[in-house]
Amino acid sequence: MSESQPASKDQIKVKFFTRDEDESLHCSSNPIYIPVSLKRFGLSEIVNHLLETETPVPFEFLVDGTILKTDIQEYLVKNGLSTEAFLTLEYTRAVLPPKFLSSFNNDDWISSVDSIGSMELTDGQGGTLQTDPKILTGSYDGIVRIYNSSGKVETQLTGHSQPVKAVKFISPTKFVTAGMDRSIRLWRAGVISNEDVDKDTQAGHTFALLDYHKSAVSTLDLHIGSNRILSGSYDNSIAYWSTNPKEMNTADAVDPSERLSSSSRKRLKLAIKDSSIKRKSPLAILESHRAPVEGVLFDSNDPTIAYSVSQDHTIKTWDLITARCVDTKQTNYSLLSLTSLKNMNLLATGSSARHINLHDPRSSKVTTSQLIGHTNFVVSLTTTDNDYMLISGSHDGTAKIWDIRANKAMYTITRESQEKRSKVFAVSWEKEIGILSAGSDKKLQINSSAEFK
After folding, report:
1. Which pairing describes strands 389-394 and 378-383: parallel, antiparallel, or unpaired?
2. Architecture in CATH for domain 11-93
3. Please, which of 4, 152, 187, 327 could form a disulfide with 317 given CB 3.0 to 4.6 Å?
4. Which class for 126: exposed (0-12), middle (13-18), buried (19 or more C-beta within 10 A)?
């Protein structure tokens, strides 16, 4: 490393900077010459030297907004540059590899998962109660379970008669779930703290049934601020609901014998039990898709705007005030999952073509870039508190961590169960818990999230 000598064919002039203002104050403002053979580790040594850090810190490096995954020489060759070029390298703290923390058993395949951090609630008597982080899962046995972060099932919710395909926390005591039995349920359960872990598993109860869909309900999204719910179904429609039953009209009662096969005693029994629960109709119906809806999402900045993806290969934008589709983007493959990188104004979609596509809903261009690495359907996506990070779950049995500035996955999370041909159906992330993944191995797996900032 040299600050003044001219570059040889084995050196190049670079300048380091970071978007973190505090760290940039310690960096040399003058370009320096470094060997073109350096990769991330060697570059990190230089930056640690410039910052005079007491303990070395691993960094990632970006050139023109793209993470450098090779040595500098390979980058130069790939981009047709010589050592006479001048490079500006942005450095950012590297994300550490996720470590396996624990794995919890379930009685059947886990098809959906959500998580919520600790919260402070009022106890109704002028005091407050601190809740602990919780995990909500839906299973192919039709049971919704709430785990604490130690793996104890605190609450079991029974009512669905077929696999539960989507679950969402409204609060630590309220939840919404949906499944292949066509029903959407609003649930309520009490709060269990860590001091009550030896208490018998409690049962929650359904306080409203949201009744419209004519086929399996595959996806849900929730906007807490406006108390609104979106549901997507294999009947090709999207329904718009409230978390407050009083805001919705009462739906006509359903004859259990019409809704469910009389050959199934369990399903008929559950349907009869549901006859006393109030049924509610949607606030609006959104119709435009021509195949099953696999993902729905509220706009992160405007709850009157929503997005959806479908097996009909399209991404649609909806005006929820008028219940109209205002934009349709056509792709070449079935779209199976959806999330947003809100500070980047990007939508991410998982596809049957095994890749993840990034879309700018404001642009006329369908796809801005692709993330390639999975070898089977990408059926679940979630984000973290890092603006550039995505986590994906796939039928190839893995979850992957992505930085959208790189063209390949940063890390791959395999199943600790090592079950062959297992599929990951759902992923979630919670700062206080870690990376959650679940699937056909009947395991809820937790990996550390390291530092995503």
Report:
1. antiparallel
2. Roll (3.10)
3. 327
4. exposed
